[in-house]
């Protein structure tokens, strides 16, 4: 069942203000980071948590990341690049995925379009980056292991409307 939740530009700006997207973070998102920096940062956190890092957003929705999900997010920069962001900007968002997910809002839930038996649903979240830009986070609800962050895509807020069709 398709369930979408609308979010306006003003609501996203307010979310960014409430989440205190700092000037330092804004600059990091704009400048970007290296692939190695993002990978090392997240791999270190995952190793310190026993191989699987659990994250909860402000609504208490839990998901996890592991080394495979980090590799998937890092290798999937092409959509962000198609949206006029650099690979470095994409890597900066991946490096900060913990904070981005914590401050995200769910905007869409739908069944797995591929019909995979082990995927209960696909959940889509947005979190503010800077200016009118967001990160679109895809979380797969894996029946036996829980919700796993699968991918991210950087985009302008206006492009989000087309994602609900």
Would you kindly provide a written description of the structure presented here, covering whatever features stand out?
It is a single chain. The protein has 165 residues and is α+β, with helices and mostly antiparallel strands. The chain has one domain (3-164). Helix content is 38%, strand content 28%. It has 7 helices and 7 strands. The protein has helices at residues 9-18, 23-31, 35-48, 67-75, 78-82, 87-95, 97-102, and strands at 3-4, 53-56, 62-65, 105-110, 119-128, 133-142, 146-156. The strands form 2 sheets. A 5-stranded antiparallel β-sheet has the order 1-4-5-6-7. The protein has a two-stranded antiparallel sheet with strand order 2-3. A hairpin with an 8-residue loop joins strand 4 and strand 5 (119-128). The longest helix is centred in the first third of the chain and has 14 residues, at 35-48. 29% of the residues are buried. The mean pLDDT is 85.
């Amino acid at each position: 069942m398709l369930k979408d939740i609308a979010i306006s530009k003003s609501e996203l700006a307010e979310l960014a203000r409430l989440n205190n997207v700092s000037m330092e973070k804004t600059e990091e998102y704009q400048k970007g980071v290296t692939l190695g920096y993002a990978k090392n940062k997240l791999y270190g956190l995952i190793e310190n948590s026993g191989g699987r890092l659990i994250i909860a957003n402000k609504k208490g929705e839990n998901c996890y990341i592991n080394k495979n999900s980090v590799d998937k997010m890092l290798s999937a920069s092409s959509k962000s690049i198609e949206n006029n962001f650099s690979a470095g900007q994409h890597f900066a968002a991946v490096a900060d995925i913990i904070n981005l997910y914590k401050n995200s809002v769910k905007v869409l839930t739908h069944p797995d379009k591929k019909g995979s038996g082990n995927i209960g649903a696909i959940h889509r979240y947005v979190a503010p980056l800077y200016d009118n830009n967001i990160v679109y986070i895809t979380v797969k609800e894996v029946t036996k292991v829980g919700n796993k962050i699968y991918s991210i895509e950087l985009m302008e807020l206006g492009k989000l409307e087309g994602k609900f069709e």
